[in-house]
Design goal:
By secondary structure, the chain is mainly α. Helix content is about 75%, strand content about 0%. About 20% of the residues are buried.
Length: about 250
């Protein structure tokens, strides 16, 4: 043994456990109480517990990763994101396969009770989301060593967040208009697929915005983790790509 050996230390974090508990309340329990046991109050209470717990856990976990006290972020963060994206992609595949089977075996499509859904709205949403991929790329370019500009990075990051928030706002508006026309989750098999897939994608947009917020706040005080920014950017591009499948299958097929 020489004097240069490094002492190995365990890295422990309670944030993964907390976010898992939050997801348990936010999705399975809330879904079960509302749709299986028909207890909306219990479902709302579960969401009231799960949503804040998930958000707090994400912020805490991300902050812990950005501070990187144990020096492991550079080695793992960027390479771990593709594995996470692969797992998320499989979830989307499950939704799409279920939709395809339903769509291709239905005698009539769209089913009775389905209102005419505007194709202009998803086109606008697509333009906004594609633009946000360009803006996050612009933000990354300002972190390159030869043209480092923290102010430029913050500006383009904020533009990306505004575009993402606008996308979510339009999605909420669309859902509201459909509700007013009597098109609900339980209206027919298409409504179940439509709200499930668009809602699942919207939740990923929300997570992406949470990641950007966790990047923005330290950046305002002068702290930027390049590896984390690249990982969040890869995730955002994934969300953008998935949206093309959502649009093509639900709106134009």
């Amino acid at each position: 043994m020489n004097g240069h050996a490094h002492e190995m230390k365990w890295h422990t974090s309670y944030w993964p456990l907390l976010v898992s508990v939050g997801i348990l309340f936010l999705l399975p329990l809330a879904f079960g109480f509302y749709f299986v046991y028909h207890k909306p109050l219990a479902a709302v209470m579960c969401m009231g517990v799960g949503a804040p717990l998930v958000l707090i856990s994400i912020v805490g976990w991300v902050r812990e990763g950005m501070e990187d006290e144990h020096g492991i972020g550079m080695g793992l963060s960027l390479w771990a994101m593709p594995f996470f994206i692969l797992a998320e992609a499989m979830l989307f595949v499950g939704f799409f396969v279920a939709y395809w089977v339903t769509r291709l075996t239905a005698p009539v499509w769209p089913p009775a009770g389905t209102p005419e859904i505007s194709v202009a709205v998803p086109v606008i949403m697509t333009i906004i989301l594609v633009a946000s991929s360009f803006t996050i790329h612009m933000a990354e370019t300002h972190l390159e060593e030869e043209r480092y500009n923290r102010s430029g990075f913050i500006f383009w990051l904020m533009v990306t967040m505004v575009l993402g928030a606008t996308f979510l706002g339009i999605s909420i508006f669309e859902w509201t208009e459909l509700y007013h026309e009597g098109f609900f989750f339980s209206t027919n098999v298409f409504s179940s697929s439509f709200f499930s897939i668009t809602g699942f994608h919207g939740s990923h947009v929300l997570v992406g915005l949470a990641l950007f917020l966790c990047i923005l706040l330290p950046a305002l005080s002068g702290k930027v983790n390049d590896t984390f920014v690249k990982s969040a950017s890869v995730y955002w591009h994934f969300v953008d790509i998935v949206w093309f499948f959502v649009v093509s299958q639900l709106y134009f097929w």
